[in-house]
Amino acid sequence: KAGVTQTPRYLIKTRGQQVTLSCSPISGHRSVSWYQQTPGQGLQFLFEYFSETQRNKGNFPGRFSGRQFSNSRSEMNVSTLELGDSALYLCASRDENSPLHFGNGTRLTVT
Amino acid sequence: EDQVTQSPEALRLQEGESSSLNCSYTVSGLRGLFWYRQDPGKGPEFLFTLYSAGEEKEKERLKATLTKKESFLHITAPKPEDSATYLCAVWYGKIIFGKGTRLHILP
Fold it and tell me: Which of A17, A96, B3, B72 registers the highest number of CB atoms within 10 A of its CB?
């Protein structure tokens, strides 16, 4: 089985712009979660989608949003980018009652 | 507040020197605890799931244990290739992570 695929691998954006990140889960996995990873804060939970519905949400501002499509692929959008949004964004998929399986992330740099 | 704390933040060991990493948690309704390994530039790689106090899992030089308030990852006779960041995560509806332990094994 192919693993979790995230695109693009690297992005450089300017403050105030918006960005969309993409995630293709492992085939058959209906749950997709997004995490932000920074050196100071570690892995912080953004949100989880299951069958196109947001099931759980972390403590991030409304500038961070996501969605899931009927084929379980997911996108994450960040609007009005700030310097502090520079991070590695990780997507993970799972089957019910199984652990998360991660992609290799999208490295976002905001200048 | 629900939280996961890992210690130490960083650990340097000589090859062959055994040690333990700690993960303590304060969440209600724990459904499971996961251990992951993360190498630089990569996403976390799954190691173990523990579901209940007293449970133990082993894989090569690693053994994970779970009590009601904490988990330990024991590393026996580590090799340089065991150098990585080790993350624990608790599942209680959401899945939240600790900040990790950066492990460096010196040859």
Answer: B72
- Best mutation target among B34, B99, B101, B102 (most A Cβ atoms within 10 Å) is B99
**C-alpha distances in Å from residue A26, one per residue of A102, B72, B75, B88, B106:** 9, 29, 30, 22, 36
Percentage of chain B exceeding pLDDT 70: 100
CB–CB contact B44 A48 (8 Å): no
Q: Give the number of A-B residue pairs with CB atoms closer than 8 Å.
A: 47
- Single-letter amino acid code for the residue at A41: Q
Q: Which helix (H) or strand (E) covers residue A47, if one does?
A: strand A42-50
φ, ψ for residue B57 (rounded to 5)? -135, 145
Each residue of A33-46: pLDDT tens digit? 999 999 989 999 99
Spatial distance between the Cα atoms of A79 and A19, rounded to a whole number of angstroms:
7
Number of neighbours of residue A83 by Cβ within 10 angstroms: 9
Composition of chain B by helix, strand, coil, percent to 5 = 5, 60, 40
Cβ-defined contact of A33 to B95 (cutoff 8 Å): yes
DSSP lists the bridge partners of residue B14 as B106
